[in-house]
Design brief:
Structural class: alpha+beta
C-alpha cells in the first residue's frame, strides 16, 4: 500500500515531466522539512447531528480516487518522489476497483465493502475532526475517519453555505481554480502551455466565448426571473464565495495552500510572495459553462449531417441516397432500447413531411472557422496543432460523450417492497476528481452526495432525507445550425434584411516554462466571431452565396439558470414526492435524464430547454438564418424562446423499471447523436434488469451485480459476435488460422464475453487472445462489410457522424484514452442489422441495402473470414501500440483506467470497468 502523509488541505493541476526532473535535482529532504506546514486539525469528540434519515442504513455511495483533492508542496514532492499519498486522497479507489472481480459473491451485507455508508451524520467514534471555519459559531465541518468527507451543519443559511464553500476549497481549491480559467479560456496562461491545456481551453471557449459582462448578465437574469428563490440563490452563492475566500486567506497566511501554486509560479515557496486570487461570482458561471458544455448540451453536428447526406445522394442519387442516409441515421429505430418503455410517445425533433429552409452547403465548400490566430512558439508547433484539431472536432461533434447510467426498479418487483436504485454520473477519472462528496444540513437544505467542485453550494446528485436522485446525459437536440448570409465582407451578415456587423470576441494567452509544466514559451489569440444566431463555426457557400454557419444553443447565456432546480432538490420542504421531484428538475436547462426513488415510488424526467421549431424545420440540418425558420418567439438579445411544455418531455412515474446508459429516451423522441439502434450499450442494462424484474425479489445486491456484470462486458461480443459467428459457421471453416480464431472467440463468448482479469490484480485478461482478435477485427470487418457498397467517400462521411468503434483502449472523447467509458458510439447496430438481414432473420427498421457480401451469405462469409484472418495475425503490440503509461502489447494496461492528473498527486491505474464514476446504491425503508 502507498505510504501516506497527513491531510491538510488542497488540490492539483496537470503535473508532467518537468516536475520529475526538478525532483532529481532538488534537495528534497531539506525542502520538505521546511514545508511541512500545519498538520491536520486534531480530532475532537464532537459529532455531527444527523438530520432525519429514512434510509435505514441502506444508502451507499462511492467516488474515486478520494475526497482529499488538495496537497501542499511537501505532499506533492513526497508523492512524486516516493509515491506517498495525502490522507483520503485515494482511499476510495481500491474499493471502487475491487468490484470488477468481487461482485459475483456480493450480498446486501457486503455492499459497503465496495461502497461508503451514505447515511446522514457521523457516529461519535468515527469523527476525525471538527472545525468551525473562520471561528464562526453558526456552522461546523465534521470529517469522518474512513473517507474524510465533509459533513457541514449550519444553524443559519449563510453559515451553512459559508461552510460549504470553505469545505470545497479545503478539498478542491486548485481544481476549482483550474476550471474557472478553463471556462474563461485562460488555462494556458494560468497553468502552462502544454498541448493538452491548449486543447482543453480551446474546446470549451469555442462553445462559450463569454465576456465578463455576459457572465454577470446570466447572474442578473437568474435572480431577476426567479423571485424569492432567485434572491436566495444569490445569497447562497455569495456566502459560498465568502467561505472559499476565507479558506484562501487562511491557507495563504498559514502556508498550507496547494503546492501547485508554487510549481506553476504563482507563489514563492521561500518568501510566500505571490497571490491566490479570490473567487468572484462570475467565476461560478464560468465553471458552470464548462460542466454544461461537457455533460449537458445535446445537439450540433448539422453541418456534418449535411455533408454525409450529400455524399449519400452523390453515391446513390437523391431519392435512394436520402433513404440510405435515413436508415443509417436511425432517428426512431423500432429496435432501440428505451428508458420509457411503456409505449408512450413523446415526439420531438422528428422528420418533417416537407422540410423548409434547409441550407445545405455546396459540395466541397465547407471550411472550419479557425479559432487560434497569431500563434507563436509552442502555440504553433505540431503538438499544438494536433491538440487544436482534436479540440475542434470534440467541440463541433454531436457525439457528446456524456456517459452515466441508471438502474431503478419499482418496489413491486423487489424483495422488500421498496424501490431499489443503482445510479450515477460517468464523469471520467481525474486526480483530483471533478466531483466531490459532501453532506449539507442547514435551514432549507438537507442532502448528501456529489457536486462539481466550485459549484457545491448544493448537492447536485445524491440523496435527501427520504429520497434520492441522479442523472444521465440525454443528448436531445437543443443546438441548431443557421446559415447566415454574408454581406459587405466576411464579418458582416444579414439579420432580418439589415447588414449587421459580427461581434469579435478575443482571448489572448501567453505562457512560459514552470516547474510543473516545462513547455517552452508560446502564445496565441483565440478569436470568435459572434452573431445574433450564435458563434460562427464554419464557412461555406450555399447555392453560390457566401455564408457563415453558426450554432445556437438554448442554454447559451443561461448556464446559471439551472441553480434553481438544484436548490429545490436540496430542499426537504420542496421535494416530497415524485411529482415535486419532476417539478424541481424542470428548472434545469441542461439536457439530462433524471431519476428518483423513495420508499414507495420511482420517477423519471428528461430536462432541457427544448426550443419550439417551425413545423417545417428539420433539426438534423442547417437552415437559413431568416425569421421564418427561427425558434418560436426567439429573442436574440436574451436568447430566450418558446420551449416545449413539461408534459412533452419524456417522463414517467412508477414504471416497472428504468434503465439509462445514454440510450434513446422514448418513442419518437430523437436525440442529436447517432447510434440509437438495435445494439446500444443500454442493452447491457436492459437485458439484465428485465431478467431480474421478471424473476422478482430484486435486492440492492442483485441490482449492483447486474450493473457490475454489464460494466465488464464487451458489447460487441455479447450482442453482435453471435451473429457474426453464425455466418462464419454456416459451413465448415477449413482455414486453420480462421478456425483457431473462431474457436477462441467462441470460447470467450461461452465464458460471458467479459474483459476481466484472470484473478484480481493479475493484470492479465482471461481470454486475452480472443479480446485481442475482436479488437483488431472490428474496424476491419466494418470496413469490409460497408465500404464496398457505400463507397469510400460515403463510408468516410458516415464515420464523421458516428465512429466505427469505441473500445476501452481507444483514445476517444475529451479525456482521451484510459477513460473507462466505452461502447457509447460505434457501428454495432449497423453490423447487427446487416448481418441479421443477410442471415434472413427478421429486422425491424433495416438498413436501406444489404451490404455484407452484397446480401449473399457466402460472399459475406468470405469477407468475415478474410478480415478475421488479418485480425488474428496482428500482434498484441500492433493492436495495443503503447503510450506514455503502457508498453506496446500490454493489453490490460491499454484498457486500464487512469486518474488523469489535474494536479501534482498521481495514482495507480485500475482494471477497466464501464460504470459511473460517482455511484449510489439506495433503498429507502420509510418516508416522512
Amino acid at each position: 500500500m502507498p505510504r501516506r502523509t497527513s491531510r491538510t488541505a488542497l488540490d492539483r493541476l496537470r503535473t508532467p515531466g518537468r516536475l520529475t526532473g526538478f525532483l532529481k535535482t532538488a534537495s528534497i529532504c531539506v525542502l520538505i522539512a521546511g514545508l511541512l506546514s500545519p498538520l491536520a486539525q486534531t480530532a475532537s469528540a464532537a459529532e455531527a447531528t444527523a438530520a432525519n434519515d429514512y434510509c435505514g442504513g441502506q444508502c451507499s455511495d462511492i467516488l474515486p480516487p478520494g475526497e482529499n483533492g488538495n496537497a501542499t508542496l511537501a505532499q506533492v514532492l513526497l508523492n512524486q518522489a516516493f509515491g506517498t499519498q495525502p490522507d483520503h486522497a485515494e482511499d476510495q479507489l481500491g474499493p471502487y476497483a475491487n468490484l470488477a472481480k468481487g461482485y459475483s459473491g456480493l450480498t446486501n451485507s457486503t455492499i459497503n465493502t465496495f461502497f461508503n455508508d451514505a447515511s446522514f451524520g457521523v457516529p461519535s467514534d468515527q469523527v476525525a475532526s471538527t472545525l468551525s471555519p473562520a471561528g464562526r459559531t453558526d456552522v461546523t465541518i465534521v470529517r469522518d475517519k474512513k473517507t474524510g468527507v465533509p459533513h457541514i451543519t449550519g444553524t443559519t443559511r449563510y453559515g451553512t453555505e459559508f461552510g460549504a464553500g470553505y469545505a470545497a476549497a479545503q478539498d478542491r481549491l486548485w481544481l476549482m481554480d483550474v476550471f474557472r480559467h478553463v471556462g474563461r479560456g485562460q488555462l494556458t496562461a494560468f497553468a502552462g502551455g502544454a498541448a493538452s491545456n491548449q486543447g482543453l481551453e480551446q474546446q470549451f471557449w469555442r462553445n462559450a466565448p463569454y465576456s465578463e459582462a455576459d457572465l454577470q448578465a446570466q447572474i442578473d437574469n437568474a435572480v431577476a426571473t426567479n423571485g424569492a428563490r432567485g434572491q436566495q440563490a444569490l445569497a447562497d452563492a455569495n456566502a459560498y464565495l465568502a467561505g472559499i475566500n476565507s479558506y484562501i486567506d487562511a491557507s495563504d497566511s498559514g502556508r498550507y495552500f496547494p503546492g501547485e501554486y508554487v510549481l506553476t509560479g504563482h507563489k514563492d515557496s521561500i518568501t510566500n510572495a505571490g497571490t491566490i486570487d479570490h473567487f468572484k461570482i462570475t467565476d461560478l458561471v464560468a465553471l458552470a459553462s464548462v460542466i454544461g458544455a461537457l455533460f449537458g448540451s445535446g445537439g450540433g453536428g448539422e453541418v456534418n449531417n449535411a455533408i454525409s447526406l450529400m455524399a449519400a445522394q452523390e453515391q446513390y442519387g437523391v431519392t435512394k441516397g436520402t433513404e440510405v442516409w435515413e436508415s443509417f441515421r436511425e432517428r426512431n429505430d423500432p429496435e432501440a432500447v428505451l428508458t420509457v418503455h411503456n409505449g408512450e410517445s413523446f415526439p420531438y425533433a422528428t422528420k418533417p413531411a416537407n422540410a423548409q429552409g434547409e441550407a445545405l452547403p455546396d459540395a466541397g465548400s465547407v471550411t472550419t472557422e479557425p479559432l487560434v490566430h497569431d500563434a507563436t512558439g509552442t502555440g504553433a508547433d505540431q503538438s499544438a496543432n494536433a491538440a487544436s484539431a482534436t479540440a475542434t472536432a470534440n467541440a463541433l461533434t454531436s457525439a457528446k460523450r456524456g456517459m452515466s447510467n441508471a438502474l431503478v426498479v419499482s418496489g413491486k418487483y423487489t424483495a422488500s417492497g421498496h424501490p431499489v436504485a443503482v445510479f450515477g454520473p460517468q464523469t471520467g477519472y481525474f486526480a483530483p476528481q471533478l466531483l466531490m462528496l459532501q453532506e449539507i444540513q442547514g435551514p432549507g437544505i438537507s442532502a448528501r452526495g456529489a457536486s462539481f467542485a466550485g459549484l457545491s453550494m448544493y448537492v447536485e446528485l445524491g440523496r435527501g432525507q427520504d429520497y434520492s436522485w441522479s442523472a444521465t446525459t440525454s443528448g436531445q437536440d437543443i443546438i441548431d445550425t443557421y446559415a447566415v448570409e454574408l454581406c459587405q465582407d466576411d464579418y458582416h451578415y444579414l439579420y432580418h434584411g439589415t447588414c449587421t456587423a459580427m461581434e469579435k470576441i478575443e482571448q489572448k494567452n501567453s505562457w512560459a516554462p514552470t516547474t510543473a509544466d516545462g513547455t517552452a514559451a508560446g502564445s496565441y489569440t483565440m478569436r470568435v466571431w459572434r452573431t445574433k444566431y450564435g458563434p460562427v463555426e464554419y464557412r461555406a457557400t450555399v447555392g453560390g452565396k457566401k455564408v457563415a454557419y453558426t450554432t445556437l444553443r438554448s442554454s447559451y447565456l443561461h448556464e446559471a439558470d439551472s441553480i434553481i432546480g438544484f436548490q429545490m432538490l436540496n430542499d426537504p420542504d420542496y421535494v416530497k414526492s415524485p411529482g415535486t421531484f419532476q417539478s424541481a428538475v424542470q428548472h434545469i436547462n441542461y439536457t439530462f435524464n433524471w431519476f428518483y426513488a423513495d420508499s414507495t415510488h420511482t420517477a423519471y424526467y428528461n430536462s432541457g430547454n427544448n426550443p419550439v421549431r417551425p413545423s417545417g424545420v428539420d433539426a438534423e440540418f442547417p437552415v437559413w438564418a431568416q425569421a421564418a425558420y427561427e425558434w418560436k418567439n426567439w429573442n436574440p438579445t436574451t436568447n430566450t424562446a418558446d420551449y416545449t411544455p413539461a408534459s412533452a418531455h419524456p417522463n414517467s412515474i412508477d414504471q416497472d423499471y428504468y434503465v439509462s446508459w445514454n440510450n434513446k429516451q422514448a418513442l419518437e423522441y430523437a436525440t442529436a447523436s447517432w447510434g440509437d439502434g438495435s445494439v446500444h450499450r443500454g442493452n447491457l442494462l436492459e437485458d439484465r434488469v428485465k431478467k431480474l424484474v421478471a424473476a422478482g425479489g430484486v435486492t440492492r445486491a442483485s441490482l449492483v451485480k447486474a450493473m457490475a456484470d454489464a460494466s465488464t462486458a464487451d458489447l460487441r461480443a455479447e450482442d453482435v459476435l453471435p451473429d457474426l459467428l453464425k455466418v462464419i459457421n454456416s459451413s465448415t471453416v477449413t482455414d486453420s488460422t480462421a478456425a483457431a480464431a473462431v474457436s477462441k472467440l467462441q470460447a470467450w463468448l461461452t465464458a460471458g464475453g467479459k474483459r476481466t482479469e484472470t484473478s484480481a490484480g493479475s493484470k492479465k485478461y482471461a481470454d486475452a487472445d480472443a479480446v485481442r482478435i475482436l479488437d483488431a477485427w472490428w474496424p476491419l470487418l466494418a470496413q469490409g462489410i460497408f465500404q464496398p457498397g457505400l463507397g469510400t467517400d460515403l463510408y468516410t462521411a458516415f464515420q464523421a457522424n458516428l465512429p466505427v468503434d469505441e473500445s476501452p483502449s481507444a483514445a476517444h472523447g475529451p479525456t482521451g484514452a484510459h477513460a473507462g467509458s466505452s461502447f457509447q458510439y460505434g457501428w454495432w447496430s449497423y453490423v447487427d442489422k446487416d448481418v441479421r438481414a443477410v442471415l434472413g432473420e427478421s429486422v425491424r427498421g433495416p438498413l436501406a441495402d444489404k451490404y455484407c457480401g452484397g446480401g449473399s451469405i457466402g460472399a459475406c462469409r468470405d469477407i468475415l473470414i478474410s478480415t478475421l484472418k488479418t485480425a488474428a495475425g496482428k500482434t498484441a503490440a500492433q493492436v495495443y501500440p503503447g503510450d506514455d503509461l503502457c508498453s506496446a502489447g500490454d493489453q490490460w494496461c491499454a484498457d486500464s483506467i487512469v486518474q488523469r492528473t489535474l494536479g501534482g498527486i498521481k495514482h495507480y491505474n485500475i482494471s477497466w470497468q464501464n460504470r459511473p464514476t460517482f455511484q449510489q446504491v439506495v433503498e429507502f425503508t420509510s418516508h416522512r
